[in-house]
Design brief:
Layout lengths: L1 H5 L13 E7 L5 E7 L30 E3 L28 E5 L11 E6 L8 E7 L6 H9 L4 E6 L3 E3 L16 H5 L2 H4 L5 E11 L17 E2 L13 H10 L14 E8 L9 H13 L2 E6 L1 E2 L5 H12 L3 E5 L23 E6 L17 E4 L1 E6 L3 E6 L1 H18 L5 H10 L20 H6 L24 E7 L4 E8 L3 E9 L10 E6 L7 E4 L3 E8 L2 E9 L7 E12 L14 E3 L4 E6 L6 E8 L3 E9 L6 E7 L5 E3 L8 E2 L3 E3 L2 E9 L11 E9 L16 E2 L5 E6 L6 E7 L3 E8 L7 E7 L4 E6 L6 E8 L2 E9 L3 E14 L13 H9 L19 H12 L20 H9 L19 H11 L22 H9 L19 H16 L1
């Protein structure tokens, strides 16, 4: 402290820098992020802000479209038993919040697993098994290895990531007219006719899993029963979005009550379950909990207007549980038919076998083109409805999320007429009584047809609506991925079905015989027609048995019959079909070392992701230079394509900018001789499920490079260059010359960089002014791959001429011009917060440039530098005495200023006769030095001027005086940081302020 006191004269005043810079940034997975960089506050906050000169503030507006609301994972909760997860793509790390669902084959086998953090054990019935939510222990864990270990754990049945599900709402125009005639959808589905038979269903409960319901809506409140709020547990399931209220009104807006609209059910029991927040967000786990809650609390019908494209084993288990408890799930198919076209497959959970998938129909009774299509569609219902709105009102709505509740309400009326029906019988009756629309027979746009409520409540259920189908020619379509009900009427009956396989693969058919308790299951034979293998005929001897066949793309036929042809017994049965796509022709290529080798030419390959977490690697060896451009398109929105490209030993450059089902195209990559790799994956999740779809990878390879800047062989053809941008070119012939034009608006330091020079070739860059006068030139040395030339240029037009010692077209050279505008002779203060102060001091001759044209504003200022600035600013009288310092000889560049300042009493040295010219000064020294130099009096303060500057501190009088005169300030937390080093910018800014103060 004594040494510091003796050297207080070299202390520098402090300055506050508390401006906040916000810079826009981008996130690599389907999204945006803003990164804010905040400069540390520096205590000259009170310094007047000069007019902004040559400074701009970039602003990035991010607009999030809510055409389709997404349900994202919101992971938090109790800790349960450990569980595993499946392997993530190599080099692809999941987000920090990514969690996985793990199902144990036997809950009793659950055990702690190394490196695994268990977030919670899902609360669900024992029949559905034990499922845990887990993630790796620690943020730096090798996720791929961790997932692989879990996959290989024999006690685990499956591992899959939590994925988002999407609210399938569609925007609709608003209206204030509450009259029943506005509900045209009721006429389309013959609901009004059905009311002559039945219009109430109060014997069962219908759960609406959505954003909640307006619990006080006059047209709904009397039809509501207690529900639950999974978003804010303990609170009522009040709708804060509006979507759930609209869905509930379609099902059961109270009828015949002289108010607003009528639902398909006049009186009902609607259980509102809030699983989505005010913005329509939730997650896969919460959706599963909502379904289980509904079923366990007595709901027989569950309406789901949400969806996701990824197949979820977890939600599949939940759907199976609901079916086992006698509950019927009804879900919307999705609204991407126009935006994604043929890639818009039916979303899950609608696509599961036991869930009724509902598409949309337009007001004319045709399939709605905006509705998602697929072989899993069961029925269509009107896309446009008029229904209840949040706040007690009414409005027009549209989308498959409005079609699904119509089918749910129809199912409730069927159960009112047939209370003993099982869910599969309700599904069958709704299918049997639908009005055929679209293409004749079953079609992927409307399924079995348009919902007809009157037919459904007045028509008897056929035990087998697919008859007559005793021959191959009469085989009806069997929905791929759905469950149907039929019957074998004795040993002489044959049932034929046709299944359209979308690709080569494996069709699995589950047969469930509906036999009475104690009855023996007769043996059923199933044959795949056209399969020449020895296993084309398979026997099913159990009441529940699954059989598989390898099939080719296209129509496949299957025949069922009883093995004993003499039996007269009728066998009702259920059939469920599933499909697995066959591995593509390039497998096995899941690892980089297994990469399938492609020839270095333009081509298109077709592959698929046939297993969970599938990665496809390809290798290409280039003997010559060129360019490569990759385009990856997909057949289905169940794939979110991602394509990566890398040179061996270098980082992977991945392109994943668009969403589910959208084509990804990379930039053109410049390649030189060597080995390169391509990796494609489904980025829908870190461990995406198998997808029944193909991708198409198009490679555009150009071996001989063309110059994108040609023609630029003449000066008047010169290609304009923008500072900071890169320009690629080739020297196509021995006489080829490439000209570039550069325009400078002000004096700048200009750097011309030429890189990518081929081996054995020397290149030259020449700089000319607008009169074609040669200003500078630079030639690369032998075997050098680049050259750099820097010089100071004034405002004007300049030309760069690029030549080479020989022609080349297998490799690009790169030209890049960098410019730094000179302000007061400095290249590094243009956009600096203290730039104006530094420029003003330069005009006054207080600071001067250096050979590097840099001021280095953020570097700590030394004692010699500070003294030199002070002497130039104050200009003291010539020193009459010599104050010698051992470390400041006469040859020292700052000898004169230091001697003058010491003789004037502004500064002092250290014990032993040292000054420390190269030692940086801190903020309290800065305050004392300025106080002495400008003769500002000071007194010891009564109170501490800052929280970290006590009243009795040696520098407190100077700091207090400078603070009172608004010459410096502290930080936002009330501190001053007296011992922090002062920067050259801080010293310059506070010096200028003090100069102005003493002159005023």
């Amino acid at each position: 402290m004594n040494e510091k006191r003796s050297a207080i004269a070299n202390s520098i005043p402090s300055m506050q820098m508390s401006e906040l810079e916000t810079k826009p940034g981008r996130n690599a997975q389907a999204s945006f992020a803003a990164r804010a960089a905040r400069s540390e506050a520096s205590p000259a906050a009170a310094l007047p802000q000069p007019p902004l000169r040559r400074r701009g503030f970039a602003r990035l507006a991010l607009h999030a479209s809510l055409a389709a609301l997404l349900l994202w994972s919101a992971l938090a909760g109790e800790v349960g038993h450990p569980a595993p997860a499946s392997a993530a793509p190599a080099g692809v790390e999941p987000a920090a919040s990514q969690s996985w669902l793990v199902k144990w084959r036997d809950p009793a086998q659950a055990k702690p697993l190394p490196g695994t953090r268990v977030l919670r054990r899902l609360a669900q019935p024992a029949a559905a098994g034990a499922v845990d939510v887990v993630r790796p222990e620690g943020t730096g864990a090798d996720t791929s290895a961790w997932l692989l270990r879990l996959q290989q754990t024999p006690e685990i049945e499956y591992v899959e990531p939590l994925s988002p599900v999407e609210l399938l709402a569609s925007p609709s125009p608003a209206t204030n007219d509450p009259k029943l005639p506005l509900q045209h959808h009721l006429d389309q589905i013959e609901a009004k006719k059905a009311w002559n038979t039945v219009h109430d269903q109060t014997a069962l409960t219908i759960a609406v899993i959505d954003t909640g319901v307006d619990l006080d809506h006059p047209d709904l409140k009397d039809n509501l029963v207690p529900g639950t709020n999974l978003v804010s547990p303990g609170k009522p399931p009040e709708d804060d979005n509006g979507h759930g209220t609209s869905v509930a009104g379609v099902v059961a807006g109270e009828g015949n009550n002289r108010l607003g609209v009528a639902g398909i059910l006049w009186h009902a029991r609607i259980m509102p379950i809030k699983a989505l927040d005010a913005d329509g967000y939730g997650d896969e786990e919460r959706l599963g909990k909502a379904i289980v809650y509904a079923v366990d609390h007595g709901a027989r019908i569950v309406v789901l207007s949400v969806g996701l494209y990824r197949y979820s084993l977890y939600l599949k288990d939940i759907a199976d549980y609901a079916e086992s408890k006698g509950a019927l799930l009804v879900a919307a198919s999705g609204n991407d038919g126009v935006t994604l076209g043929s890639r818009a497959d039916v979303k899950f959970p609608a696509a599961y076998p036991t869930v009724v998938a509902v598409a949309g129909a337009d007001p004319d009774g045709n399939p709605e083109p905006r509705s998602n299509t697929g072989p899993e569609i069961d029925l269509a219902a009107p896309w446009h409805v008029y229904t209840t709105a949040i706040g007690g009102g009414y409005k027009a709505e549209e989308g498959t999320s409005m079609a699904a509740p119509q089918v749910a309400a129809a199912a409730a009326l069927v159960w009112a007429v047939h209370p003993d029906y099982k869910p599969y019988q309700v599904r069958a009756l709704l299918r049997q009584t639908a009005l055929d629309i679209g293409n004749p027979g079953f079609d992927t746009a409307s399924g079995y047809g348009l919902l007809q409520v009157d037919n459904a409540v007045t028509t008897a259920l056929k035990p087998d609506s697919y008859e007559p189908n005793n021959s191959k020619n009469a085989a009806p379509v069997f929905l791929l991925g759905k469950k149907i009900a039929a019957e074998l009427a004795g040993g002489a009956d044959k049932d034929w079905y046709s299944i359209d396989a979308p690709y080569d693969g494996v069709i699995s058919i589950q047969l469930q015989g509906l036999i009475g308790v104690g009855d023996e299951m007769p043996t059923v034979q199933m044959m795949h027609d056209g399969d020449t293998s020895s296993q084309r005929i398979k026997d099913a001897k159990l009441g529940n048995q699954t059989m598989q066949w390898n099939v080719k793309k296209g129509r496949n036929y299957f025949e069922l019959h009883l093995f004993d042809k003499t039996l007269s017994q009728h066998l009702p049965y259920l059939l469920t079909s599933t499909f697995e796509i066959a591995p593509d022709a390039y497998e096995v290529n899941d690892k980089q070392y297994q990469a399938f080798t492609l020839s270095p030419r333009s081509q298109q390959i077709t592959g698929n992701f046939h297993q969970t977490g599938d990665l496809d690697w390809y290798a290409i060896h280039f003997d010559t230079g060129g360019t490569v451009k990759l385009t990856m398109s997909v057949d289905s929105a169940r794939i979110d394509p991602s394509v990566g490209f890398q040179r061996q030993g270098e980082a992977m450059q991945e392109t994943d900018e668009k969403g589910d089902g959208e084509t990804e195209t990379t930039r053109s990559f410049n390649v030189t001789p060597g080995q390169y790799y391509i990796r494609v994956r489904n980025s829908m999740s870190a461990q995406a499920s198998m997808a029944i779809a193909e991708y198409h990878l198009k490679l555009e390879v150009i071996s001989k490079l063309t110059d994108p800047n040609e023609p630029n062989n003449k000066i008047y053809e010169a290609t304009g260059v923008s500072p900071g941008s890169s320009y690629w070119g080739v020297i196509g012939t021995a006489n080829d010359v490439d000209w570039y034009q550069l325009r400078l608006a002000s004096t700048s330091m200009t750097t011309v960089q030429l890189s990518g020079i081929p081996s054995g070739i020397r290149m030259k860059a020449e700089l000319y002014d607008k009169t074609q006068k040669l200003l500078a030139q630079q030639q690369s040395a032998p075997n050098e791959t680049g050259l750099t030339k820097e010089l100071k240029l004034g405002a004007g037009v300049y030309y760069i001429k690029v030549t080479a010692s020989a022609s080349f077209d297998r490799q690009y050279y790169k030209l890049k011009v960098q410019t730094d505008q000179l302000v007061a002779g400095f290249r590094d203060i243009e956009d600096h917060w203290a730039g104006d102060a530094i420029e003003a001091l330069s005009d006054l001759g207080v600071v001067a440039g250096s050979g590097s044209y840099r001021f280095y504003p953020d570097r700590s200022i030394t004692r010699a530098e500070a003294v030199s600035m002070l002497v130039r600013a104050v200009k003291p009288k010539a020193a009459s005495t010599v104050v010698g310092f051992i470390d400041v000889p006469r040859s020292h560049w700052a000898y004169g200023p230091i001697n003058s300042a010491a003789a004037s009493g502004w500064i002092g040295g250290y014990p032993g006769g040292f000054f420390g010219p190269n030692q940086s000064i801190d903020r309290e020294e800065m305050a004392v030095m300025l106080l002495r130099t400008f003769g500002l009096g000071s007194v010891r303060p009564v109170h501490a001027p800052f929280i970290d500057v006590a009243a009795d501190r040696w520098s407190a009088p100077a700091i207090q005086t400078m603070k009172q005169k608004d010459l410096l300030g502290g930080y936002e937390n009330g501190g001053f940081k007296p011992e922090a080093s002062a920067t050259r910018a801080e010293f310059a800014a506070v010096l200028l302020r003090t100069m102005h103060f003493t002159k005023s």
